[in-house]
């Protein structure tokens, strides 16, 4: 007994606080949230416990998923995620590729590309709201004014005020903010490839492009996957940037996280919880296979 | 700005190291290719800095300069009025944010260090599963726990504002801090720990007298990461605080979105003010900042 304690006691003691916190605040609350989401807790009276609630099972989910309003949010989220991913991966990759070979001032370029990551979405939203101002012609400011000044008037548009594709305007600041991060990932990937591999390729008479195509790119696949997972799950949770650039109740740029905020603000706890669960499922679809895969590799 | 994981990057025994490795063996190239590369890189810099230009310029403009025609011009008269006004509006919340972020980072770092140590050194059946279950906590959308979380905090009587936010950032910071420390400790030679064990030091002693002192680089990485994340958080702020007791992101958002008449000058000075602490950290400790980004390798 004493021996056992000496062996297992200290590690359990060190881990216990965190394990308990994770068990309660991650898994426990996910369960509690789900159980709220299957009730008819839709008003201030039920939310504060003045009126009782009853279980309605998946009614909230079917109603939400069937409503045009929420479908619009999901479509927005889908468009946003696709463009956000493509944009950050493409720009991040190109920057890393440009910086891969020795170049003067590399540190400077890297630092500038990466700095937007240190800034909050709320702070960058302040300036992007101005840049993405939808006024055109005489009253144009922001990017529309810049387009006029450099003779690209045709590029002027109403940005996030477009009903169908307005959400894509929000991807511009998102890409601005995270391309540097993807660059850092790819750059580390490039640098992690042993020189011998490249040399071997060159020895075999491969052209520079072939070395990239057959030697470097395959080596970068794991990095690419990581970048996809990181940006993808961030994108699904997008909230701050949209709140800061457009008004929360703005139909054009609505996503589920914003719907959840609005539902909570109107004491519709059941719907808020249901939207939370839907988001969780979306993120889990992306992340869980990845966690399982990395977990297996380690064994 | 949220969680990181992964990349088969060498773990950060010196943070940011992977990026510093120079490869000077290839013959340097001159000519068209090089010029094009520079052109492309400088174009990138210009694009990235456009918002910064606008922020700076607008923050020094007087109300007269606000006309859209002059939107991209330098101020006609440089004035500090916007900065003064932004300071008056934001300084209480800036102070509160420091009060929240510092304890939240330190506590989460210690918990992460303890977990990381145990999980990297002590293999028991299911250790990897426990680790994966902890890690999942950094990916979850907090919306999926928010409603019961609000209820628990209300029932427990935890005051909204700084105390609630410290607790939240500690709890939900555990996965990322655990990840960074675990990856770091896996790089520490076994002999070091074994030597301690031969001397008869128990696990707690080993942790305290051998592991902690050599963890300083990781602590810097984790503290910076937590500091930046907590400083920039808006989601928890919006649910667990208000304009009177909340952090600077909330105050800034109210400043920029609240007024009937948009005062871009004040908002932009405020945005710069609210970003200064994290930017200063980034400028001074940039290497460690990058280390934090890289080191979250799920892979050990």
TrEMBL record, chain A:
| Alphabetical UniProt keywords | Cell membrane, Membrane, Transmembrane, Transmembrane helix, Transport
PROSITE patterns found in the cross-reference section: ABC_TM1
Give all residue intervals belonging to the ABC transmembrane type-1 domain.
Answer: 74-292
GO cellular component term, pick one: plasma membrane
The record's CDD domains line, in alphabetical order, gives: TM_PBP2
Q: Where in the cell is it found?
A: Cell membrane
Q: Name one Pfam family in it.
A: BPD_transp_1
Using the record for this protein, list the coiled-coil segments as residue ranges, or answer none: none
Annotated signal sequence is: none
Give the membrane topology, semicolon-separated if more than one.
Multi-pass membrane protein
Q: Does the keyword Thylakoid apply?
A: no
| Transmembrane regions listed in the UniProt entry | 12-30, 77-99, 111-131, 165-190, 211-234, 272-292
Q: Which domain of life is it from?
A: Bacteria
Please verify whether the record's keywords include Transmembrane.
yes
Task: Please give the biological process terms from Gene Ontology that the record holds.
Answer: transmembrane transport
The UniProt entry lists the main location of this chain as membrane
Q: Which family does it belong to?
A: Belongs to the binding-protein-dependent transport system permease family.
Name of the protein this chain belongs to: Glucose/mannose transport system permease protein
Which species expresses this protein natively?
Paraoerskovia marina
TrEMBL record, chain B:
Primary subcellular site in the record, as a coarse category: membrane
* Gene3D superfamilies in the record: MetI-like
- Its membrane topology, per UniProt? Multi-pass membrane protein
Keywords linked to the UniProt accession: Membrane, Transmembrane, Transmembrane helix, Transport
Q: Please list where the region (Disordered) is annotated.
A: 1-20
Kindly list the places in or outside the cell where this protein is found, as annotated in its UniProt entry: Cell membrane; Membrane
Where, by residue number, does the polypeptide cross the bilayer?
38-60, 100-118, 130-154, 166-185, 206-227, 264-285
Pfam families attached here?
Answer: BPD_transp_1
Say if the entry is tagged with keyword Ubl conjugation: no
GO CC annotation = plasma membrane
**The ABC transmembrane type-1 domain covers which part of the protein?**
94-285
In the record, biological process GO terms are: transmembrane transport
Highest taxon of source: Bacteria
The family note in this entry says: Belongs to the binding-protein-dependent transport system permease family.
- Protein's name according to its UniProt entry: Carbohydrate ABC transporter membrane protein 2, CUT1 family
Question: What's the source species for this entry?
Answer: Paraoerskovia marina
